[in-house]
Amino acid sequence: MMGGNRTLVLFNYDWDRLGFGRWQSDFPSDHAGFDLFSFPSNAHLPGFDLTRFVDRLANKAARAGWQAVTSNHEQFGALAAALMAERMGWPGTPVSAVLACQHKLHARRVLQQVAPEANTGFELMASRYGEPVPDDISYPVFVKPVKAAFSVLASTVRNRAELDALVRFGIWELWVIRRLVEPFERIVGARLPEAGSAHRMLLERPAHGLQYNLDGYVFNGELRPLGIVHSEMYPGTECFRRFVYPCGLPDAARARAIEVAQRFLTAVGFDHGLFNMEFFHDAATGKLTVIEFNPRMASQFSDLYLRVDGIDLHRVALELAHGRDPARLPHAAPTAGIAASFVYRSFDPAARPPMPSPAQQGELARQFADAMLFCFPKTAGQIARDFKWLSSYRYGILHLGGRDPAELAERCNAASALLGWPSPCARHAAAIDGSRLPQLSLETPT
């Protein structure tokens, strides 16, 4: 890398491990942080403190030769990277902007000031974790933690009984939740006290429409959109089934999404770094409703942009971390006209879908050279917690590209059969919301 500088990558797992790994020779990097989803790595969670974590890294920075820091980890990494960049005087997203995005109640309040037409009704749930559910809630209502990640405990509830079941936590659950939130709570209390405690649940009026993601970055205060990904759910659920790029969101809605993002990010002082805005678009009314802002790259989508547009979001992140303009980067040759991240889920808590054998994975690599596979084996206890917190069990993710939606569907079906998993593109599944390509279903053609 230029000047021999090294990059510190925090909480570097899954898509980030692969994405940043593509650039290891050009951007030598070191890693710090732990994996929340694997033991013994997650044994670091008890007593974890962001300030002490950053202090230890700052004391090592000169000896290690670090000149930049980056992270796309929602729970701890994005905030830790902002704190580290601030401490060292490196380019980074302002700490206050990360806090404003990640504190979901504060973000709603800011959005109400700058783009109320893109907001939804919201209020703080009166009771705290472990306390009885209040009597004065109007249903249905969408409930989510003020600070969380991975859609944990985010769900629409239709009555008090469903809400009570969602927020009735056992001793172990409360212990985990508090330790996931407390590192953020300490920083927000010191740096953004007007936001209030993050150890609470937020109530929102349910929004309608198809779900999308606006991805982009800000450099020198200038917002630069990269693209929009469509998020599709398993029918009748709030669980993601696949993420598809490109998508057929109308141009007017695209322009509106960028305008709303500009207003919000300016208001919270987000002047540098990658961002992801999740939103609903109701095609019947044209209404756009913001779900939330993520002050980091949506790592799961980086591979999709690389396949279709030749833009590597992980390289964009590295350029930003070193204070360089990503607009100057050359584009790679696209390898697909459409790409998707397919999510394999079980909705039966008693089911234990088999993990593909080494032979199956080897055959997948042979037949589908572009395939990117993640397997998520879990214990019975982990599966039970997933069903409580996420209403399903995610056991695998597969990335593939294709010339068009029809070929992509065929490839997904064939790869799923090889793995021994039900295909997210099975016949009679809801069609993907178009694309910039012809309006074709992702079902296998008859």
Write structural notes for this entry.
The chain has 446 residues and is of the alpha+beta class. Among the domains are: 2-99, Rossmann fold, CATH 3.40.50; 121-204, Dna Ligase, domain 1; 337-446, no CATH class. Helices cover 35% and strands 22% of the residues. It contains 13 helices and 15 strands. Helix 2 packs across helix 3 (77-88). It is globular, with a radius of gyration of 21 Å. Residues 428-446 have low confidence and may be disordered.
Number of strand segments: 15
Range of helix content: 25-40%
Main beta sheet: strand number and arrangement? 8 strands, antiparallel
Structural class: alpha+beta
N- to C-terminal distance = 51 Å
Estimated radius of gyration? 21 Å
For the largest beta sheet, what order do the strands appear in spatially?
12-11-8-9-10-13-15-14
What string gives the helices and strands in order?
A: EHEHEHHHEEEHHEEEEHEEHHEHEHEH
Overall 3D shape: globular
Could you report the average pLDDT, rounded to the nearest whole number? 90
Please report which band the strand proportion falls in: under 5%, 5-15%, 15-25%, 25-35%, 35-45% or over 45%: 15-25%
Q: What is the number of helical segments per DSSP (H or I, 4+ residues)?
A: 13
